[in-house]
Amino acid sequence: MANLPTTMHGVQLTGHGDFDVLKYATDIAVPSLASTDVLIKVMAAGVNNTDLNTRLSWYSKQGGESEDASWSSEALVFPRIQGADVCGVIVAVGESVDKNRIGERILVEPCLVKANGETLKAPWYFGSECDGGFAQYTVVDSIHAYTINSRYSDVELASFPCSYSTAENMLYRSNPQQGQTVLITGASGGVGSAAVQLAKARGANVIAITSKSKAQQLKDLGVDKVIFREDDLIQALGKNSVDVVIDLVAGDQWPKLLEVLKPKGLYAVSGAIGGALVELDIRTLYLKDLTFFGCTVLEPEVFKSLVNFIEQEKIKPIVAKTFPLTEIVTAQQVFAQKQHVGKIVLTVSHG
Question: What is the pLDDT of residue 61?
Answer without folding.
Answer: 54
